[in-house]
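Apologies for my clumsy wording, but are you able to produce some protein sequence, whichever is easiest, and the tokens describing how it folds?
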Amino acid sequence: MSSEMLPAFIETSNVERKQNLNEDIEESQKLKSGERFEPMSKRQMKKLIKQKQWEEQRELRKQKRKEKRKRKKLERQCQLESNSDGNDRKRVRRDVVRSTLRLIVDCSFDDLMLLKDVKKLHKQIQRCYAENRRALHPVQFYLTSHGGQLKKNMDENDKGWVNWKDIHIKPEHYTELIKKEDLIYLTSDSPNVLKELDDSKAYVIGGLVDHNHHKGLTYKQASDYGIEHAQLPLGNFVKMNSRKVLAVNHVFEIILEYLETRDWQEAFFTILPQRKGAVPTEKACESSSHDKKCTNFEGGSDSDCSEEEYSRNELDSAHEEEKPDKENSTDSTVNSVPH
């Protein structure tokens, strides 16, 4: 091979090499692209089918939403027409008559509770607030000694509490806000049984969830402060199969119900959970094994089914959603069984 032909041969070889390289690259790309078109798995196939069906049914879903809105609108109109007797919410709110009675949840027991019990108390307070806002005769609601774990928990889990309306949330103790002669502490240890509610008074509910570990604490506090005390007349009207434990919100709701009906028995049986097996005292006496004649324990009159029949009950604040089959429910240091 002459020296003149050598450069031409080298150039031709380089071109061929480049062509071969390009062909190899194209072939590898074809192989790779061919891998993407391999048969799909069953899961991928199902996913693709569902996606296709979802796209096809887009208009159908849109139509269903329109029909649902129309149906709800029609239902609301029918409800408003059927509530011509004044039971609809807007009409009821216009009929609200605010009570001058003050109802206080005393939160001064913060250091005696575990965090889990503080959280339960917080939920009960939320329920009290909601029920008072809906009541026909809402009370003057006070939350006193507000601070510590309770305030921290509310700040973290219920930041909207700062915008609550129709409630007085105070860091001060209730004795610093209200005259002592106007205060009545609701405690089960009190020998005094309420017969009526005085709208000029301020009733205190102990905000303590302690699993009945601090018996007599609220009664002692009331006595130490020289405050009048009493218990709700639960034992005069109700016999319960389960432990006589009421949550803070139950006491609160019973008082709201009584302000509307002025009937203790109706208030108790409207609010008390069914799981407590509450029955009127006269029926409980009739079904007793002794089959003795029983008269109502009213006005201090003697009775075969006297208050001794009811065990001492520390109605300390209980979790609103306590289970009926658990006897270690949270207790409330408020209210209400004669003993």
